[in-house]
User: Fold this.
Amino acid sequence: MAFGRRNQVEEEIKTEETKIWACSSDECKGWMRDNFKSEVSPKCPLCNADMETSTKVLQVVDNPHPTMKSS
Assistant:
């Protein structure tokens, strides 16, 4: 019985440019995906500062039951 990954097929990770909310504070590196936010204009969950929209190239993740729709 082999426990290595040699015989397994490598699965390609799908990425795409994704809308995010990034913390506006210079001291904080907090961010969240737009489709995972819980408010129209969210506050940073780490430092409670305002957040700004931005984009990042991220792995595709489905959120089948978003609480807020992307705007």
The CA atoms of residues 6 and 53 lie 41 Å apart. DSSP finds no helices and three strands in the chain. Strands lie at 15-23, 31-33, 51-59. The first strand starts at residue 15 and ends at 23.
